[in-house]
Automatic annotation (TrEMBL):
Parts of the chain that traverse the membrane: 300-322
Pfam families recorded: S1-P1_nuclease (PF02265)
Protein name (database record): Aspergillus nuclease S(1)
GO process terms (BP): DNA catabolic process
InterPro entries: PLipase_C/P1_nuclease_dom_sf (IPR008947), S1/P1nuclease (IPR003154)
GO MF annotation terms: endonuclease activity; hydrolase activity, acting on ester bonds; metal ion binding; nucleic acid binding
Keyword annotations from UniProtKB, A to Z: Disulfide bond, Endonuclease, Glycoprotein, Hydrolase, Membrane, Metal-binding, Nuclease, Signal, Transmembrane, Transmembrane helix
Signal peptide extent: 1-21
Record family assignment: Belongs to the nuclease type I family.
UniProt keyword annotation of Glycoprotein present: yes
Length: 340
């Protein structure tokens, strides 16, 4: 009984980690970087696809695509979203070290297909809810595909079954989780007093200093991921290949070797997502439903603003009246004083 429970829990945690992508921090950094790059009509368009009170800030939605999958976050709906689980990654045969769409992404049921799908749906969908959904999936999957182990070996589920310890911490982790969150967490702790906004500023500066061309070829990006995996990520501090049968022990050397890659990927993810959203904002056809929904959220915002203004006007009027009354009475009292 206890054992089954434990096994289920372990399974759950592993699966959780498998689709969790960069974790909350990495995903929100990528989305923030992207939003900092938006120009022309893109910010307004994004605003029309987010609840008005967020003022177009997408960061909170960066991990929506993960959170819908779990009973904890989505107790009534999680079962309805399980079909989207496999869209967070693509698996290749172990150590095949190449990506072949017809073998690895059948019927587009993988992260590359999903990015294509939601890029298209974002601009062709007529239904507003569907557009929002497409946007939230897209911003997440574009982050995931920059985590190298989201293009992973099928046999160990993208590194989820490769277990070990990191930085002398006694609790066990796995290679996938290390790349999702472990390396970033170590960086935050070492150099940024665990302050995410300081870390964001640092990554933002890295992005601003970046001069290379933006490469928007996702198949090439997948090949780069695979190259990293086959030449670097699976090699421990003694350059011995890691696998699911032996527990790894990783620390400072592995961290120093790989953290620059992690940060470069955050930068690349932010740049590519920003470029994509700008491009879509420019090329999307103007749709009646889009106008309607814009009008709709616009109208709501207007009503709220007018309402707020009304309240402000009343409160302001009241304050001015009170103050003038107070001033008047003070003046009177002063003059009364001076008179006496
Ligand atoms: C967007 O929201 C995140 C938290 O959800 C916050 O850290 C960030 O500063 C916000 N960005 C802007 C531009 O307001
Ligand atoms: C495309 O998106 C729709 C709507 O979310 C989904 O039902 C479908 O499975 C997706 N297809 C792929 C290949 O991702
Ligand atoms: C881990 O422990 C070893 C041996 O006690 C020590 O030399 C090393 O500095 C520790 N590493 C970290 C990152 O704390
Ligand atoms: C993080 O750093 C920023 C900028 O220095 C600061 O304003 C903020 O209060 C810090 N946050 C925390 C939780 O320490
Ligand atoms: C592992 O390989 C790297 C790169 O080839 C090399 O710099 C390093 O010295 C090697 N480490 C060990 C322990 O052999
Ligand atoms: C796993 O790695 C260990 C250490 O390198 C090696 O001895 C073992 O043969 C490997 N197992 C498999 C199944 O590849
Ligand atoms: Zn994910």
């Amino acid at each position: 009984m206890f054992l089954t429970h434990w096994l289920l829990l372990a399974l759950f945690c592993d699966t959780y980690l498998h689709v969790n992508g960069w974790g909350l921090v990495g995903h929100s950094i990528i989305v923030r970087l992207a939003q900092s790059q938006l120009i022309d009509s893109a910010p307004e368009w994004i605003r029309s696809l987010t609840p008005w009170h967020w003022n177009g800030n997408l960061s909170a939605m960066a991990s929506w695509a993960d959170s819908i999958l779990y009973e904890d976050n989505n107790p009534t709906g999680y079962a309805n979203w399980q079909w989207s689980r496999m869209l967070h990654y693509v698996n290749i045969p172990d150590w095949s070290c190449d990506y072949q769409p017809e073998r690895d992404c059948i019927n587009d049921q993988c992260i590359l297909g999903a990015i294509k799908n939601y890029t298209k749906r974002l601009v062709t969908e007529h239904d507003h809810i569907q557009q929002e959904e497409a946007l939230y999936f897209l911003i997440h999957f574009l982050g995931d595909i920059h985590q190298p182990l989201h293009v992973g070996f099928r046999g160990d589920r993208g590194g989820n079954s490769v277990l070990g310890t990191f930085m002398n911490v006694t609790s066990r982790t796995n290679l996938h989780a290390l790349w999702d969150v472990g390396l970033i967490a170590a960086r935050l702790e070492k150099d940024f007093q665990k302050n995410i906004s300081l870390y964001y500023d640092y990554i933002y500066q890295l992005m601003m200093d970046e001069t290379s061309q933006i490469d928007d070829n996702l198949e090439q990006l997948s090949e780069q991921n695979i190259n990293l995996i086959c030449s670097q990520i699976y090699f421990d501090e003694n350059n011995v290949t890691m696998n699911a049968s032996v527990n790894f022990i990783l620390g400072e050397i592995y961290y120093q070797r790989n953290i620059p890659i992690v940060e470069q990927r955050l930068v690349d993810g932010g740049r590519l997502l920003g470029t994509l959203l700008n491009r879509l904002a420019k090329t999307r056809p103007q749709q009646p439903s889009d106008k309607k929904s814009k009008l709709c959220s616009g109208t709501i915002a207007l009503i709220v603003i007018l309402g707020l203004e009304g309240v402000l006007a009343i409160v302001g009027g009241l304050l001015i009246w009170l103050r003038s009354k107070k001033k008047l009475s003070t003046r009177y009292s002063i003059s009364e004083f001076s008179r006496t």
